[in-house]
Amino acid sequence: MSSTTSDAGKAVPGRLAAVYSKVQTSRVNISLPLPSVLKSSFNIVDGPPSSATGNPDGIAKLFPNLFGQPSVILKAGDSGAGAKDASLKIGVVLSGGQAPGGHNVISGIFDYLQGRTKGSTVYGFRGGPAGIMKGNYVELSTEFIYPYRNQGGFDMICSGRDKIETPEQFKQAEETAKKLDLDGIVVIGGDDSNTNACLLAENFRGKTMKTRVIGCPKTIDGDLKCKEVPTSFGFDTACKIYSEMIGNVMTDARSTGKYYHFVRLMGRAASHITLECALETHPNIAIIGEEVAAKKQTLKSVTDHITDIICKRSKLGYNYGVILIPEGLIDFIPEVQHLISELNEILAHGAVDETGIWKKKLQSQSQALFELFPEAIQEQLLLERDPHGNVQVAKIETEKMLIQMVETELDKRKHEGQYNGQFKGQSHFFGYEGRCGLPTNFDANYCYALGYAAGALLHSGKTGLISSVGNLAAPVEEWTVGGTALTSLMDVERRHGKFKPVIKKAMVELEGSPFKKLASLRDDWALNNRYVNPGPIQFVGPTANTINYTLLLELGAEA
Ligand code: FBP
Description:
Elements: E1 3-5, E2 11-13, H1 22-28, E3 42-46, H2 56-62, E4 72-76, E5 89-95, H3 102-116, E6 121-125, H4 129-134, E7 137-140, H5 142-145, E8 159-160, H6 167-179, E9 184-189, H7 191-206, E10 212-217, H8 235-256, E11 260-265, H9 272-281, E12 285-286, H10 289-294, H11 299-315, E13 321-326, H12 329-332, H13 334-348, H14 364-372, H15 375-381, H16 398-415, E14 425-430, H17 441-459, E15 465-470, E16 480-485, E17 490-495, E18 498-503, H18 513-527, H19 549-554
Parallel strand pairs: 5-6, 5-8, 5-9, 9-10, 10-15, 11-13, 11-14, 12-13
Antiparallel strand pairs: 1-2, 3-4, 4-16, 6-7, 15-16, 17-18
Bound molecules: 1,6-di-O-phosphono-beta-D-fructofuranose.
The site of 1,6-di-O-phosphono-beta-D-fructofuranose has 14 residues, from loops.
């Protein structure tokens, strides 16, 4: 078993590779390819001064030390960062939900520093950003890291959803950075965590501290992306795991001929996962939240859309099917959004008790909608909010709610003589199952390159950048490597009465190629069974390096 010591000097046990399955063992021992620019000496070339995605004046005020700094690209060459040799002290933290490949980012940082800056030290902050604030860390070594290479999960150092926000918390982070004499910190996280990374970089620079901060794009949800950062890691693997499961459920539906499978898929806000899984498997229906919002659909109209297709399929003799639903769906329906924001207010200002008197505080339309929901959903809508004040959509069983609503509508149509089929709904939630799988070749290589690049950026003295690896449709050797100014991805939003910098979530673009592809095929999939079972993730063989449709289509490649 690998082990290391914690800040408190206690032994921290790691994983035991000796108990691994044959597949895990084969993955732990492979050596990963690197983009050719990372294999020898390189120069860091600055681009032009950067601006912001929105409200540049506001961002300039919030980031006086970082605003305007250029993004950079690595070019093969003999001078620059590749030539510097000083040893570094670097801390790394995993932030937010698990995503396959996180361990490879850490391995990439570690290997870069081992190879180019002999004598460097890498600390892993434990349990997410709270580890930085509390000074809870382990020192990473070759032996400790070894069993985690190319393995899913975040358990090497674990993750957390805390934010470094208040002046006291920034002070705590500062103290840790000084105590460990850190040259840099790598924050591996989503949109919020990378915004936080930039605030940390700004704060350190403002205090003329030597500690620099680099971000890495992580989230299975796929909603942290832009031109320079074409995808977040973990999306590829998670979608392939879900698609295998959906493919199996499709074959089951076809075999028994008696079930409608309602599959809810993770994706707290954006519907990228549902869209990608639809492109991989061809379900009868895939609801895309962004389209529901754009068409201002109601819960009733979503239910009617599903029911209409079920009725048409029944006439063709199919009393079965597969329907994909994004986890964030209810948050896209304007009337539900309205209800949720009223509930947020009520919950923030007092207890919701069993008397139900609190319901009187809801507007009449919201009250009527709330009463329409099954009791279980009502309870789920009242659950505690996450640390950012959001409804925990992973806990709302929209798939069960839709089954009930469709059932009611079908009964009505049966009485009216419009439908005479059989309907049995089966509900599924594919979420946590996809977040810790063995990373696909793509995610394994992408993460290793992201980590290596983060090491290179810190080594060359950069701060406030997000590690950016591009040209992803080409072989790994041809991938481009650089760092994008985090401030250039930002806008300002007013939250809780204050102006806050935010990296906007990348939602499904209704004018983008992936959605247009779905829109062009879905009528056929609705009535004719075009199910595809992609099977399990492959690590060797002709399909092992295939990347997801979303990325391929967005890169303009033929999918
Ligand atoms: P991140 O954006 O932090 O990567 O998390 C993504 C996600 O997996 C969502 O898809 C899901 O809604 C959420 O995390 C679940 O969160 P939790 O792990 O706190 O239950």
